[in-house]
Amino acid sequence: MKKLIECVPNFSEGNDMGVINQITRTIEEVDGVKLLDVDPGKATNRTVVTFVGTPDEVIEAAFRAVKKASGLIDMSKHKGEHPRMGATDVCPLVPVANITMEETVEYARKLAKRIGEELDIPVYCYENAAFEPKRRNLANCRSGEYEGLPDKLKNPEWKPDFGPAKFNARSGATAVGARDFLVAYNINLNTTSTRRANAIAFDVREKGRVKREGNPITGKVVTDEKGEKVWIPGTLKAVKAIGWFIEEYGIAQISMNLTNISVTPVHVAFDEVVQKAAERGIRVTGSELVGLVPLQALVDAGKYFLRKQQRSVGVSEEELIKIAVKSMGLDDLKPFNPKEKIIEYMIAEQEGKKLADMNLQEFADETASESPAPGGGSISAYVGALGISLATMVANLSSHKRGWDDQWEFFGNWAEKGQAIKDELMFLVDEDTRSFNRIMDAFGLPKSTDEEKRARKEAIEQATKYAIEIPFRVLQKAYESFDIIEEMVERGNPNSVTDAGVGALCARAAVMGAFMNVKINTADLEDKKFAQDIIARGQEIQDMAIKREQEILKKVEAKIS
Predict the structure, then answer these.
(1) Among residues 39, 82, 203, 271, which one is catalytic?
(2) pLDDT tier, 396 (very low <50, low <70, confident <90, very high otherwise)
(3) Which of 479, 441, 484, 480 is nearest to 460 (CA)?
(4) Would the pTM count as exceeding 0.70?
(5) Between β-strands 88-97 and 4-7, what pairing exists: parallel, antiparallel or unpaired?
(6) Lowest model confidence (mean pLDDT) among 346-350, 404-408, 456-460
(7) φ and ψ at residue 284, rounded to 5 degrees
(8) Which of 14, 272, 537, 554 has the fewest CB atoms nearer than 10 Å to its CB?
(9) Whole-angstrom Cα distance, residue 424 to residue 478?
(10) In this predicted structure, what is the pLDDT of residue 261?
(11) Is the dihedral of CA 288, 290, 292, 293 positive or negative?
(12) 419 and 360 share a domain?
């Protein structure tokens, strides 16, 4: 399993695509790295770049990009709406897969050290990579911005973590960090007033606004016993926000950084701004995501808005995303293409077409070809996916049935469970083929020396075990679908009872087909205990599946007769 990290450098150039292309080209030249997104902003004069890959390759690509930016961008001539202090203003690393935050911190500091030493650029480490608490906050590191750097660098308290404590007029300074996934999110307003946009931003951002006596705008600032300003916290945790006017669109926006979307999700931030804006007589017209967003953020948003409508959330991923986009107006300023904005979709695009992406004809033709894959394992997973899809359809139809309005949540919850099983089985359609390919790859390993023979034998054993575990997961998931199928036969829309019945037939076929694959793959396994245990468990599940199918079909026959 590869370790993957994401890097999201922000470069202080958003207008000259020639400069931007030269920087991103250095990233694409590094093997093991995939450039996912380039998002230039004219008004901010800033470009957010996103790429992902294995750790050593990512920090190599990041270093090359910082070096190229330092030669192309002259900060002494830079102007833009966004706070900035360097040609490469910030360069955060984000753990994506199979890597801890602690490991990511080490890679961030390694990158910061190299930038400071080899490029003579002052570097501050922030967020989780910070060496001291006050530097965790990027705003502290960037205080004074580029123009304040000459004086700041003379202050011993702000000596850079790496690089010289002297002003680099051309490149400024850079902040390198390690952080959780940050979502840059702007909310559009039907006003041109930056002051009003800022007022809303102060209402919602975690930091809030300075407390004043009397008039909240012109009143005297309230201080505590230490002479420090007293702040009134905003309503949203893990949110930074400011208001600004975007000449490109002719509107004011609330520009937000959602630093922890498990604390404040995108949809919660949107709805809170809608409410606070309305209190000030302002309407939200839409919003925009800057850079990429995790798939789950939009899936959760889609479910949130469907629940507000008292509709079933057990719909496809595509439908959930569509609901999220329309509900938050993500296509207000420009078209929103999920394949270009969702990080998982971008990675999937780079990996090529899957079986699950084929249409029905293509899938049937591929199965019928002389290629040994997809085979019985993939087909079992697909049949199981069709079975649970039928039960989910019945749940959704029941959720929206006239006169059953009080049951929308009950059936919606069953539909949501069905969608989860369907998605898992569709994943296993391709994973079964990949597991077969792993065995073929293991057999292709060299076997000239004794050491190579041992390594090859172990690789074949592990690949075979994985090729057993995948159809066993199909068997388990297909069996889980019986709970939903049976519930839909008993309580679902009576006009669709036979659809649920066909679902039961598919579920039983999926269980039995997957179990065949489990058994045949155990034949040459060295670990006989593993083989015996998994066959015993599989036999038990198959027996239960056959029994439950028969019971469900009796209930179906009773209803249709």
Answers:
(1) 82
(2) very high
(3) 441
(4) yes
(5) antiparallel
(6) 346-350
(7) -80, 130
(8) 554
(9) 10
(10) 86
(11) negative
(12) yes
**Among residues 39, 300, 432, 499, which one is catalytic?**
432
* pLDDT 10s digits, 450-509: 999 999 999 999 999 999 999 999 999 999 999 999 999 999 999 999 999 999 999 999
Tell whether 247 and 384 lie within a shared domain: no
Q: Which two tokens stand for residue 378?
A: 């993939």
DSSP state of 561: -
Side chain identity, residue 62: A
Identity at 484, one-letter amino acid code: I
Residue 524 has pLDDT above 90, yes or no: no
Length of the chain: 561
| Residue type for position 466 | Y
**Residue 116: which pLDDT band, with cuts at 50, 70 and 90?**
very high
For residue 153, the tally of other CB atoms under 10 A from its CB is: 19
CA–CA distance, 287 with 381 (Å, rounded to integer): 39
Alpha-carbon distance of 291 to 343, in angstroms, equals 9
Is there a contact between 47 and 14 (Cβ–Cβ < 8 Å)? Answer: yes
Q: What is the pLDDT of residues 259-309, one digit of tens each?
A: 888 899 999 999 999 999 999 999 999 999 988 888 889 999 999 999 999
Task: Based on the residue annotation, tell me whether 78 is a catalytic residue of this protein.
Answer: no
- State the DSSP H helix or E strand holding residue 306, giving kind and residue range, or none if neither: helix 295-308
| Average pLDDT estimate for 164-168 | 95
Q: Dmax of the chain from CA atoms?
A: 89
Q: Are residues 442 and 358 in the same domain?
A: yes
Q: Is 174 left (phi over 0), alpha (psi -120 to 50) or beta?
A: beta
Q: Are residues 270 and 292 in the same domain?
A: yes
- Domain final residue, candidates 314, 347, 380: 347
Domain count, the chain: 3
